Backbone:
């Protein structure tokens, strides 16, 4: 057992209102720079939709992540091996084009002030932030398919629908049944990151003490293999500095005890951050599990921080007590491992993403009847049968399974049964319009009990700031000590100084070596 | 041991004389004889590649009687820095340049004192007597003092191209020089093309002396420690003399062009095959185009690429 700690995340999709505040917070802090205009380290997608970059989930095109089938059926990068890297080193055919992201633009605001007098109102034309030329038609943006905009094209081409039946497609498009939800995405800071494995320069690394995946701006040589290697397309290429960049999980904020900016600013309070302890020796086995067992294998790699054996091993591995304590309080541990509610996004990419999603409940079917808008099928026995009729969900389970459980519908069904139990139980508590027998039935089907449901409800709906964000002292100094000779206070010969570690901005990144 | 005693006395006397001379005489008044000795040394090391004394012209003129022909000042300046005098358009220098095949004399990096010594030597040198063997550095006793076109051009070609090795391990000439008659791709570009070198240098003997002495700084750096043997020189020069006749055939240029086009075509085909899966339009634009086709009456479920 080789215990390590990782800053891990949960997004509760039922609560996301699609306001993009997270995106704006991230953009303003990190990517409001030349060369980074098109990057959204955090972005919010509408599902069904093609996302950003277009159809990023289509690994037939982008070749991200891992597949089984290397030597002796072991894991190998879907992108290429050593020889493929060499052959494609100067031209990688699997990269998204700028058009697949979008061409970033600003507006010629000055014209509003400077335009000569004329018959028409002056306008602010769009200007490309890449070429600096006027853009006459803007054809794409980072969330072009927001709220099902242009859904005839964008929602229809969602790669998760590639295997949907004609009937399912028709139902999802039917007016009155149309449904969508939001999927905020950041780098998953994976346990088995494809970006790290694909980099020929060895410039990407996963920090040992907190699992944050970073690109060294000094060692990056602009080969751009990480962009292909990451199945989530969460590394980006800065065309101005000629270096790859990605989400850094706001490590400067984490190191000073604050949650990342997108978490902090989230309006729907959907985001949770906390530490988990995992067994690094189990990573390979977890990543190469059969497709249907991937979710469970990843859960198994995460360890119980209350288990005395785990605590002893963690202490032996040099994990400070404050971190073990934080791991016990971690909301992520509860959602992922204790309640089995949060699932990784596209586990079939086999990078073991450490950002987990609680899948959204589809809205209850409703219809207009005699001028009265009502839920369908509400009969004498109340809402319960309807709430628990998963088969009637507007979003087919198969679609959710394709997103969150590598196609394993059983896992998704279990998650929903528990979520339904929480709803039924709490409605019975508050509104008292559901018979006790129905409540018990829902609890039994969800495989849960009243105490657990109350805890889930509390962490879902009423969590305090401190409950959502359990950020321990990162103890960066201990991690650094291992890399450098001990500080020498007498000779004042400090080998380290501020900013020396981490992403390594000793100076601004520049093109070239 | 009277013998030993005499020797010792002599040695002491000699040392004393030298010491006295050292102490007593100012540096400028050094014995002319000693200077001439030093000059002879320099001449053998640096000049014999291009000059003789009384044995006729090589690349450069025969220097017999040159001290009578030119004023000492001029000689001092010329020997010390011929390039600068040519740059300053010295009329005598220019005339000489044209007379001797337009091969400029290289700057040998001699100090003023060394130039003086050299002039002293030139003034005293007995015609012929002091002419050193050209290959003084390598083979002390040359069988043929002037290797003419007696070598084997075939062997010379092999040596030139590196098919055969030089005995002392020097690099093949082709590494730095090109010449007619060695194929379409020619040789290196560091040194000049040698196709017409024998005519330019005024004959095989001159060329051979030049090759043996390697007077230019680049040649010197390469060949000082790995000199050619007399036979090798003869062979290489024989080949060069032949190359001057054969010239570089014009169709070699066309062959080169053909090779380049063929190579380009092979590279393009290979690149097209390796990267045959590329989609220069990306994903979004083809997706829109597909959707537009579907809207134009084709079945709503057009086959989808997965
Ligand atoms: S999600 Fe992040 S850590 Fe995982 S492969 Fe992509 S860039 Fe790397
Ligand atoms: S800020 Fe929160 S609620 Fe708003 S879009 Fe982002 S994740 Fe969703």
Residues:
């Amino acid at each position: 057992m080789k215990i390590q700690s990782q800053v891990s995340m949960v997004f509760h999709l039922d609560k996301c209102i699609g306001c993009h505040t997270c995106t704006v917070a991230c953009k303003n802090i990190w990517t409001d720079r030349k060369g980074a205009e098109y990057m959204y380290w955090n972005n919010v997608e509408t599902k069904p939709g093609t996302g950003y970059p277009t159809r990023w989930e289509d690994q037939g095109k982008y070749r991200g992540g891992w597949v089984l089938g290397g030597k002796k059926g072991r894991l190998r990068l879907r992108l290429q091996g050593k020889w493929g890297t060499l052959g494609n080193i100067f031209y990688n055919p699997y990269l998204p084009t700028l058009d697949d992201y979008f061409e970033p633009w600003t507006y010629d605001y000055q014209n509003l002030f400077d335009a000569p007098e004329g018959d028409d109102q002056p306008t602010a034309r769009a200007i490309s932030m890449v070429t600096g030329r006027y853009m006459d038609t803007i054809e794409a943006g980072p969330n072009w398919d927001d709220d099902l905009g242009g859904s005839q094209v964008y929602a229809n081409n969602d790669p998760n629908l590639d295997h949907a039946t004609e009937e399912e497609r028709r139902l999802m498009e039917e007016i009155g049944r149309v449904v969508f939800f939001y999927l905020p995405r950041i780098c998953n800071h994976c346990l088995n990151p494809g970006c790290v494995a694909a980099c020929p320069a060895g410039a990407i690394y996963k920090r040992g003490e907190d699992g944050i995946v970073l690109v060294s701006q000094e060692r990056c040589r602009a080969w751009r293999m990480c962009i292909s290697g990451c199945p989530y397309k969460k590394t980006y290429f800065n065309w101005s500095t000629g270096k790859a960049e990605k989400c850094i999980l706001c490590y400067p904020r984490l190191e000073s005890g604050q949650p990342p900016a997108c978490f902090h600013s989230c309006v729907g309070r959907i985001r949770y951050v906390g530490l988990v302890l995992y067994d690094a020796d189990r990573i390979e086995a977890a990543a190469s599990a059969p497709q249907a067992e991937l979710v469970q294998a990843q859960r198994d790699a995460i360890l119980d921080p209350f288990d005395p054996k785990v605590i002893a091993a963690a202490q032996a591995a040099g994990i400070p007590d404050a971190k073990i304590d934080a791991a016990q309080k971690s909301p992520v541990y509860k959602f992922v491992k204790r309640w089995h509610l949060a699932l990784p996004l596209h586990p079939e990419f086999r990078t073991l993403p450490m950002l987990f999603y609680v899948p959204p409940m589809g809205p209850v079917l409703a219809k207009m009847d005699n001028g009265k808008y009502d839920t369908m099928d509400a009969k004498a026995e109340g809402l319960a049968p309807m709430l628990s009729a998963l088969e009637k969900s507007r979003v087919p389970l198969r679609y959710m399974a394709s997103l969150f459980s590598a196609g394993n519908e059983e896992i998704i069904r279990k998650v929903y049964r528990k979520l339904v139990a929480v709803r039924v139980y709490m409605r019975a508590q508050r509104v008292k319009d559901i018979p006790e027998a129905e409540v018990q039935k829902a609890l039994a089907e969800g495989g849960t009990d009243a105490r657990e449901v109350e805890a889930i409800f509390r962490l879902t709906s009423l969590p305090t700031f401190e409950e959502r964000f359990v950020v321990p002292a990162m103890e960066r100094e201990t991690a650094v000590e291992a890399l450098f000779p001990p500080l020498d206070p007498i000779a004042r010969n400090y080998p380290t100084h501020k900013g020396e570690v981490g992403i390594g901005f000793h100076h601004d990144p520049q093109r070239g070596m | 041991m009277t013998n030993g005693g005499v020797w010792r006395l002599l040695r002491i006397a000699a040392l004393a004389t030298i010491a006295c001379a050292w102490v007593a005489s100012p540096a400028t008044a050094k014995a002319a004889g000693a200077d001439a000795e030093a000059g002879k040394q320099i001449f053998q090391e640096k000049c014999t590649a291009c000059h003789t004394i009384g044995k006729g012209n090589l690349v450069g003129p025969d220097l017999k009687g040159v001290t009578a022909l030119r004023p000492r000042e001029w000689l001092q300046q010329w020997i010390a820095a011929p390039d600068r005098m040519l740059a300053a358009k010295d009329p005598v220098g220019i005339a000489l340049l044209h007379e001797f095949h337009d091969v400029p004399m290289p700057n040998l990096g001699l100090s003023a004192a060394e130039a003086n010594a050299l002039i002293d030597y030139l003034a005293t040198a007995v015609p012929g007597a002091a002419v050193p063997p050209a290959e003084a550095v390598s083979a002390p006793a040359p069988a043929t003092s002037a290797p003419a076109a007696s070598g084997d051009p075939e062997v010379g070609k092999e040596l030139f191209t590196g098919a055969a090795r030089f005995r002392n391990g020097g690099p093949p000439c082709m590494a730095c020089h090109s010449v007619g008659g060695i194929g379409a791709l020619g040789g290196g570009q560091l040194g000049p093309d040698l196709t017409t070198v024998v005519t330019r240098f005024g004959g095989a003997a001159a060329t051979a002396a030049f090759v043996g002495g390697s007077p230019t700084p680049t040649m010197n750096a390469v060949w000082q420690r790995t000199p050619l043997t007399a036979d090798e020189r003869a062979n290489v020069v024989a080949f060069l003399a032949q190359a001057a006749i054969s010239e570089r055939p014009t169709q070699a240029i066309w062959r080169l062009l053909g090779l380049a086009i063929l190579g380009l075509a092979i590279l393009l085909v290979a690149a097209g095959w390796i990267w045959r899966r590329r989609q220069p339009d990306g994903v979004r634009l083809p997706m829109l185009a597909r959707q537009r086709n579907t809207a134009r009456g084709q079945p709503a479920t057009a086959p989808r690429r997965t």
Q: What stands out?
A: Confidence is low (pLDDT under 50) at residues 20-31, 128-149, 300-306 of chain B. The two ends of chain B are 111 Å apart (CA to CA).
